Amino acid sequence: MPDLNARDIPRHDRPAIEFVGVHKWYGDFHVLRDIRLAVDPGERVVVCGPSGSGKSTLIRCVNRLEEHQKGAIRVHGLELTASAAQIDRVRREVGMVFQQFNLFPHLTALENCALAPVWAAGVKRREAEERAHALLAKVKIADQAHKYPSQLSGGQQQRVAIARALCMNPKIMLFDEPTSALDPEMVKEVLDTMTALAGEGMTMIVVTHEMGFARRVADKVVFMDDGEVVETGEPEEFFTAPRHDRARQFLGQLLR
Amino acid sequence: MTILLEGAPLAPPKREALRRTIADLFSSPFNAIVTVIVAGLIAAGLWAFLRWAILDAAWSGGAEACRAHSGACWPFVRANAQLMVFGVYPQDLLWRPALSLALMAGLIVASMIPRFWSLSLALGWVAVPAAVCLLLSGALVGPRVSTNEWGGLPLTLLVWMIAFAGAFVVATPLALARRSDMGGLRTAAVAVIELVRGVPMLVALYVSRFIVPMTAPGVEVNLFVSVETALILFVASYLAEIIRAGLQALPRGQAEAAAALGLGYWRTMQLVLLPQALRAVIPALVNLGIGVLLSTPLVAVIGMTDFLSAVREAASHEQDWPGCFTTAYFVAGLAFFSICFVASRYSRWLERHIRADGHA
Prior knowledge:
The complex is a heterodimer.
Chain A: E1 17-26, E2 29-39, E3 44-48, H1 55-62, E4 70-75, E5 78-79, H2 84-93, E6 94-97, H3 109-120, H4 125-138, H5 154-166, E7 172-176, H6 184-199, E8 203-207, H7 211-217, E9 220-225, E10 228-233, H8 235-240, H9 245-255
Parallel strand pairs in A: 3-8, 3-9, 6-7, 7-8
Antiparallel strand pairs in A: 1-2, 1-4, 4-5, 9-10
Chain B: H1 2-7, H2 13-25, H3 29-55, H4 63-68, H5 74-86, H6 95-111, H7 119-137, H8 152-178, H9 183-197, H10 201-211, H11 223-248, H12 252-260, H13 265-280, H14 282-295, E1 305-306, H15 307-315, H16 324-357
């Protein structure tokens, strides 16, 4: 099979994701204000900030689950426009993991993983299932492959969701508060999976409140408040000496 | 008090419930009187039925036995079973409707088992009605039998089956159109649904049989085609609303996850949303199915000999068979009731079965 994405392979002189003056409104509500941000290939970015600050909206714009009204978002140089073909091309490069897992409840873990490769990428079923098995093994859940989501714990479901996204061979992974809906004892298994993924050089944007994870794994921390990127910096610098009052206040509340 | 507690060890819950029910029924003088009166009415009704169905009924013999008994005329049922079940279908070709009945019953039973739910079952719902049509018409092995002569229970089931299967084909796009972002498409879907839901089924049948053919003079429209066109549209307008409700009940995250994986609109519908939506509305689907089955006798008004018409036909021999009128309708009622009762029990079982493991 010819590689349809050959011309989209990231060049290192080009950011993996680029926000140029992006604005978004929900009716009158200004959710994103003049976002300027670049994520390099292989970079791990953690986005944090108080709830309602626009973090989730920001990453949901990357694969066009949300539409922005002004400015430009480019993924590996592909600009997100209204073109459905272009959106599909971007979505094939970008995997996403949701707060509520959003596994398909009528399919087994394995079927969840193999569905999109077969129907969206045209991979042969057998090949897709082999790949799904391999990725379920990678997230340490191979023995649950034939269970339905309702038979799995939250942590297991989220790991299946990660495997499902990886099955499409994405070059970028987006995580939208992946541990917020989990019981505390299950947070670690999901964070460990994400840490392992980061170790393999995956480009990642993670919206999370797990500051320990941010400190250990992130190359860059983006702090958002009120729809703006207030501060961007290396984790050590951000956590020990935040420059802005709002960031200081946020960290104060978080660490208390 | 202590004695009472010791004397009455933990009663089995069932007996306890019974005891409490009885206590409730006689909790005041007024309630006691009402209870006695209602119990008396029920007993009188049961007694009357018992006498009619068993004690005063004619069990053997022929028409003369029925004349001698004031109750049900069971010999009549035996003598007319063929007419009641198969209608006026040619006598020497009865194996065709019999085989049809078996095919359709087999498909319906198979459809009730969740393990069999698959694409091939859906194809069965196309293949079996088609096979039955070919079989009844004699298109495969002669001689030909006109649709006007089809009748009885096989016809009722066939009409129902095609109406329901066809309605799915029409209702799914209607439901999707109704949820569409495209305003024109949405308005058109709403218009069709509301228009068809706004008329009684009888009107739909009349329009399809008598008004529509007027727009194309000279074209002979088959009775069966007229009936099915009307029924499919009619059922589809209700079905579309049920499917829409099922889709609406799904969490947004399902569509988002599918979109993020790069599945397009149609694949998302086909593989992710519709399978879940349909499972969620199974009770409503069974309900609609029962409603449609109970409405099929209406096709008689435009000249089809469905099961109930066949029964009516048989029951018109009151002079020869005294008491056969009541007996015949009792049998017809029992047949409809049995089918619907099984369907509704099945629906309840299925709901529990699906809820128990969150999938099916």
